[in-house]
Amino acid sequence: MPVPRAVNRDRMARLLGPLFIFRFLTRTLTVSQIERRALSILSRSGVSIRGCAPELAFDIDHPVDYRYAVQHQAWAGPSFAFDGLGPS
Fold it and tell me: Is residue 34 part of a domain?
């Protein structure tokens, strides 16, 4: 698979902002800062499950993924929420 064009990386960098990129490059970016930036860009909250293996990452690309996550949200505790999507 080809590497995305540099112009796409430039757009991503502009979207994330210089402070975010600086913190990433200097390895001072925190998970909380990533969550806040995602919320400000996407107008949707997300949740990170800290302390789990990275290969357990789960993204929601399709309605079936969302339904699965809603059915299994008990693992995340009471602060876990899917804002504005509602179960289908």
Answer: yes
Domain count, the chain: 1
Confidence check: pLDDT of 48 > 80? no
The answer to whether residue 46 is domain-embedded is: yes
Query: Can you give the residue range of the structural domain that contains 39?
Result: 6-76
Burial of 43-70, coded b for 16+ CB within 10 Å and e otherwise, reads eeeeeeeeeeeeeeeeeeeeeeebeebe
Q: Is the pTM of this model over 0.70?
A: no
Confidence of residue 86 (pLDDT cuts 50, 70, 90): very low
Question: Residue 88: what pLDDT?
Answer: 38
The residue with greater pLDDT, 53 or 11, is 11
Considering only the C-alpha atoms of the chain, give the largest distance between any 2 of them, rounded to a whole number of Å.
41
Q: Is residue 88 one of the residues assigned to a domain?
A: no
Q: Report if residue 49 sits inside a domain.
A: yes
Helix (H) or strand (E) holding 80: none
